[in-house]
Amino acid sequence: MKTLKLTLLLLAVNFYFVGCKEAVDNQKDETQQTGNSPLFAKKVNAKAVKNIIATDSVLIIDVRTPNQFIKGHIPGAINLDWTNQERFNEKIKTLAKDQTVLLYCNSGHRSTLATQYLKEQGFEKLYNLETGIEGWKAENYEVEK
Q1: Where are the domains of the chain?
Q2: How much is the pTM?
Q3: Which long-range contacts (CB under 8 A, 24 or more apart) does 73-78 make?
Q4: Is 20 one of the catalytic residues?
Q5: pLDDT string in tens for the chain (145-residue length)
Q6: Which of 105, 114, 118, 129 does the annotation list as catalytic?
Q7: Which of 48, 77, 90, 94 could disulfide-pair with 73, CB 3.0 to 4.6 Å?
């Protein structure tokens, strides 16, 4: 009887961890089909961002504070401070939802939240620099001041 309980417990724990891993994997690269337009939000590293910028017309949004932005940002980025939700929402409403958008912050947390928000607002093609500006700098890529 104890062996049966232990076996069931181990199976339950195994299913839990497998389910959690699948949920995390699905969050990393979510894709859903809506009509003819694919909606996706993809986490990418600095090397992938460099390639995306070189090959695609992309709007780069730095969601850090203005003080962080002026200390250095990816060339061509605009600053929409995630912590100022009223202004962020105002500016987002003026953007075309079918354009490619790359979001980043310092290390990836705020841009993950902002990416999810834009996805919920109907933006179709989103990239999130998962390592933030720190990952960009670690690759010794250009930073504009």
Answers
A1: 32-138
A2: 0.74
A3: 73/133, 73/143, 73/144, 73/145, 74/49, 74/104, 74/133, 74/136, 74/141, 74/142, 74/143, 74/144, 75/142, 75/143, 75/144, 76/144, 77/104, 77/144
A4: no
A5: 555 454 444 444 444 443 333 333 444 444 433 333 445 689 999 999 999 999 989 999 999 999 999 999 999 999 999 999 999 999 999 999 999 999 999 999 999 999 999 999 999 999 999 999 999 999 999 999 9
A6: 105
A7: 77
